């Protein structure tokens, strides 16, 4: 981005480089569903002329970006990874798509998502750190594209961890903003009360730059909140001396956390402490119920959205997705209401913990594990044999609570396991305090070099 501003490289040359990288990697990682090469070059040439005339639209002007295949894009298929929407071309752009286009960003294609973002099926996308391993979901393509430099940034969605999980597993940065901060208008939903839309990038600063464009009130989204939008890059380099960071150890460091993850996160906490932050041990009431309540809301909301399609053409769903949609219809209304009650109690508890301990943020492992071989994958929510935790519950255990509370949550790289597979650090803030979350992440990033590591592909 700096090179563009200094006119040391043109938007067309930058696009050439990104598309070359895409060509080198795509047949191995399968990050994209469609690449819009022709329209990307048209936009890059226009950006080049505008920048040459001194008509810069901002830091994203001329930057190649990718969109998860849930965001509406005029003239470009939006299929949500499903045969149900095969060939669907939206009649309008999502609000995020529109804002990126208006910023001068170059949209180069749509990235792979698990079917309707449910996380049940296993697409062909692979993890660039080990091509035999899972890239996470459901925003797998967006995270992989950023990791291999076939996009300079991407947009994902997060209902129970779908920005943070693949970002962590692929060694990149992902931000789930505060609920209502970024419009979901024109984004195919799972759960309207749990869905979030946000950036996936190589660095914290890049995430802040994307937030400067995509954040803001949208009257077309009934969940959008009309609150002031700050400059998310302002104060990134102020440091964290004097900040108070909560550490909860019963839930986020439970027995299923791998030793390598535990070591990496403990080391990251030491780095943050060395930068002047104070670590505060905390307990969070109702936290153990939050993942279950969140999944209850997600399952019912998603089944409700798909009810008509499920009856009209059930054979077009992946069997695993269809099974979960059917299960969602058997959840009782009383269970749904209890989940809403848990949400209210948990949101209140989080506020009280932050207020009582005067916390600026909470710091946790993003997820308790590193990625696993694809042939060992189990994405079943329900453990039929009760013989231990399956993969998906392990992933949502750390992430879903903050979809339930709606708080901003950032993941960034903090190390590797013995197989050189990435580990993520999660930073959770007060509602609408993304600037502090990003500042903490930027400070950690500046004190370490994990974000500079590249996958061997």
Mean pLDDT: 95
Poorly predicted runs: 381-388
Q: How many structural domains in the coordinates? A: 2
CATH architecture of the largest domain: Alpha-Beta Complex
One letter per element, helices H and strands E, the order comes to HHEHEHEHEHEEHEHEHHHEHEEH
**What is the CATH topology of the largest domain?**
Amidase signature (AS) enzymes
Order of strands across the main sheet: 1-3-2-4-6-5-10-11-9-7-8
Q: Can you count the beta strands?
A: 11
- CA gyration radius, whole angstroms: 21 Å
Q: Level of helix content?
A: 25-40%
Short account of what is shown:
The chain has 457 residues and is α/β, with parallel strands linked by helices. The protein contains 13 helices and eleven strands.
3D architecture notes:
The chain has 457 residues and is an alpha/beta fold. The chain has 2 domains: 2-214, Amidase signature (AS) enzymes (Alpha-Beta Complex); 238-452, Amidase signature (AS) domain (Amidase signature (AS) enzymes, Alpha-Beta Complex), CATH 3.90.1300.10. It has 13 helices and 11 strands. The chain has helices at residues 2-5, 11-29, 37-52, 95-102, 140-147, 164-170, 204-214, 259-274, 290-312, 319-328, 333-356, 391-405, 434-447, and strands at residues 32-35, 64-68, 106-111, 154-158, 173-176, 196-201, 244-247, 278-281, 361-365, 409-416, 422-429. Helix 7 packs antiparallel against helix 13, helix 9 (290-312) packs across helix 10 (319-328) and helix 9 (290-312) packs across helix 12. The radius of gyration is 21 Å and the shape is globular. Residues 381-388 have low confidence and may be disordered.
């Amino acid at each position: 981005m700096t090179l563009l501003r200094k006119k040391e490289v043109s938007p067309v040359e930058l696009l050439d480089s990104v598309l070359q990288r895409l060509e080198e990697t795509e047949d191995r990682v399968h990050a994209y569903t469609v690449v819009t090469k022709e329209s990307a070059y048209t936009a890059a040439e226009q950006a080049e002329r505008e920048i040459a005339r001194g008509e810069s639209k901002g830091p994203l002007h001329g930057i190649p970006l990718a969109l998860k295949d849930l965001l509406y894009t005029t003239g470009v298929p939006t299929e949500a990874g499903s045969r149900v929407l095969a060939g669907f071309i939206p009649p309008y752009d999502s609000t995020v798509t529109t804002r990126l286009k208006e910023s001068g960003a170059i949209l180069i294609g749509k990235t792979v998502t698990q079917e309707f973002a449910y996380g049940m099926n296993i697409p062909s996308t692979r993890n660039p750190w080990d091509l035999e391993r899972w890239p996470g979901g459901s925003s797998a393509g967006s995270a992989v594209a950023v990791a291999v430099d076939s996009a300079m940034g991407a947009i994902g969605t997060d209902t129970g961890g779908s920005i943070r999980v693949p970002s962590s597993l692929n060694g990149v940065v992902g931000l789930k903003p505060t609920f209502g901060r970024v419009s979901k208008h024109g984004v195919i939903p799972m759960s309207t009360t749990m869905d979030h839309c946000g950036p996936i990038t190589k660095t914290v600063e890049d995430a802040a730059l994307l937030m400067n464009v995509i954040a803001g009130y949208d009257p077309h989204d009934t969940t959008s909140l009309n609150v002031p939008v700050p400059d998310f890059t302002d104060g990134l380099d102020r440091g964290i001396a004097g900040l108070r960071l909560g550490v909860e150890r019963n839930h986020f460091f439970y027995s299923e956390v791998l030793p390598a993850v535990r070591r990496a996160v403990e080391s990251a906490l030491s780095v943050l402490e060395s930068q002047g932050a104070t670590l505060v041990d905390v307990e969070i009431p109702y936290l153990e119920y939050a993942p279950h309540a969140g999944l209850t809301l997600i399952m019912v909301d998603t089944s409700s959205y798909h009810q008509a399609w499920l009856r009209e053409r059930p054979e077009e769903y992946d069997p695993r997705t269809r099974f979960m949609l059917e299960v969602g219809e058997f959840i009782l209304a009383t269970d749904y209401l209890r989940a809403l009650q848990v949400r209210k109690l948990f949101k209140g508890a989080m506020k009280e913990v932050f207020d009582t301990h005067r916390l600026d943020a909470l710091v946790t492992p993003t997820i308790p594990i590193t990625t696993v071989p694809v042939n060992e994958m189990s994405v079943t929510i329900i453990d039929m044999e009760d013989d231990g935790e399956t993969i998906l519950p392990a992933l949502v255990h750390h992430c879903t609570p903050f979809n339930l509370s709606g708080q901003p949550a950032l993941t960034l790289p903090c190390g590797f396991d013995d197989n050189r597979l990435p580990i993520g650090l999660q930073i959770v803030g007060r509602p609408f305090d993304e600037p502090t979350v990003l500042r903490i992440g930027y400070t950690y990033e500046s004190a370490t070099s994990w974000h500079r590591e590249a996958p061997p592909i």
